[in-house]
């Protein structure tokens, strides 16, 4: 449990740093830090996914607090013909993408670390 929490914390810090620098596409690397720390596939996926999703959720919440996010979502929903009742769908999609980016980075790194560990035993 301690390794999992440290992995999530490391991912939070890395994802925040990448997001602040404007390199959103580097989120799998942030998740990879968690996977490397945990060295197990399932927990590595979950730690990377949670860390990146929490950071992106916090950025969306901050954006909603300082700007007219609701109007932007209604505009986007109108463009893709979702209607006003489904204006939350872009936010859900963003969080799903964040979850997958962090998780896939975490599980990939955990598997690479496991292979490296096994090769080191020989």
Description of the molecule:
The structure is a single chain. The model has no long low-confidence stretch (mean pLDDT 91). Helix 2 (27-38) crosses helix 5 (89-121) and helix 3 (41-66) packs antiparallel against helix 5 (89-121). 84% of the residues lie in helices and 0% in strands. By secondary structure, the protein is mainly alpha-helical. The protein starts with a helix and ends with a helix.
Quick overview of this protein structure:
The chain is mainly α and 122 residues long. It is built from five helices and no strands.
Entry keywords:
single chain; 122 residues; 5 helices; mainly alpha; elongated
Range of helix content = over 70%
Largest sheet: none
Outline: elongated
Beta-strand level of the residues, as a percent range? Answer: under 5%
Q: What is the averaged pLDDT score?
A: 91
Structural class: mainly alpha
Strand-and-helix sequence, N→C? Answer: HHHHH
**How many DSSP helices?**
5
Number of strands: 0
Summarize the SSE layout with pairings.
Elements (H helix, E strand, L loop, with lengths): L1 H20 L5 H12 L2 H26 L2 H11 L9 H33 L1
Helix pairs in contact: 1-2, 1-3, 2-3, 2-5, 3-5
């Amino acid at each position: 449990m301690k390794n999992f929490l440290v992995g999530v914390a490391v991912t939070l810090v890395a994802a925040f740093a990448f997001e602040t620098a404007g390199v959103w596409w580097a989120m799998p690397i942030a998740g990879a830090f968690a996977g490397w720390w945990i060295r197990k596939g399932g927990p590595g996926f979950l730690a990377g996914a949670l860390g990146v999703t929490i950071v992106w959720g916090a950025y969306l919440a901050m954006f909603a607090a300082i700007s007219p996010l609701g109007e932007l979502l209604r505009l986007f929903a109108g463009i893709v013909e979702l209607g006003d009742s489904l204006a939350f769908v872009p936010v859900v999609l963003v969080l799903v993408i964040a979850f997958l980016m962090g998780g896939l980075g975490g599980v990939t790194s955990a598997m690479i670390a496991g292979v490296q560990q096994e090769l080191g035993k020989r």
